[in-house]
Amino acid sequence: MGQKGTNRTLKKEYVSIVKEFESSLQKSDSLEQLYQPKATSVKDAAVKLFKKRGLLIQRKEQVLNAYRVMEMTKKPSDLPFTKETIHEVRIPEVRTVTDPIVKIIDDPNNQPMSWPLDTASNIHSVEFAKLPLKQQNELLIREISYLEEKTRFINARYEAKLTFLHQLEEVEKQFKAFDEEINASQQKMDHYYSDLVKDDGTGEDEVPVSIEVPVKKKEVQSNQSPDVPVIYSFTDEPAEFPGGKEALKAFIEANLKIPEVAVHYKIEGKSFMQFVVSAQGNISNVKAVRGVPNCVECDKEAERVIRSMPKWIPGKNNGIPVNSLFNLPIVFKLP
Questions:
Q1: What is the pLDDT of residues 147-182, one digit of tens each?
Q2: Which of 14, 23, 159, 165 is the most core-located residue (most Cβ within 10 A)?
Q3: How far apart are CA 35 and CA 170, in angstroms?
């Protein structure tokens, strides 16, 4: 087939793919009007559910901590319930359902897009007609390939969103079941917490979450094996990040990365980290004393940042560098 015959065939094919492209685009735009409000509503519900689970975890930790305190002051027979009773309260793993849904909604390919018919050539223009047939054919082939690719992409988006809408009723049922289970567990935890506060006899709304018994430095040194390094909880001069508090703050802000799960579920909070600063200024034994509720990834990121820090200025007792504990809250705040 010569250039003329090829040109006629390509023009027909081009007109056909343009019609197919516009039809797919119209169908996709029509579905978009239904999909977007539903997707926004479902994501908001997922975020709300995730946050409620986080509050339940916090409450359970409060109850367990309060129970541990009471164990130190009361006989087992005088306690209102057993620790096993607390552990039996189930915290549903909502992420098995929420994660896949949020991932679909947040997929950039599923965000609203416009696809104007912006081809590089117009086969009906005078300028196009003046081009040599070979060049016309090359442009037509390029535009046909472009439109075919975009049509396939639009159709795939359409099918994915249609599937999402078909599954929506079942997802909403699962969300409702999780919500009811979380509410029931929250009521139990509130009841247990109320019992502990009442039995504590203080009349306070809060129960101490921990008890610290200061140890005299001389006792630590005399009882400590010479082969095990002494780690001080308190020092005359606390360990310090090189450059001071402002430099520490700047380092954390420059290196801390908000985990993807925290962004998806709008999680904010603090990881209360503890670590040892050696007499040489090295960091070790990094751990989360109390993490961000429902975000293990946040605690891991806080640990990563601390381990990446340069050597610290060690704490001192009587002017001598010593190994010391340091507590540092790492704040996770969404932009």
A1: 898 899 889 888 988 888 888 889 899 999 999 999
A2: 14
A3: 16
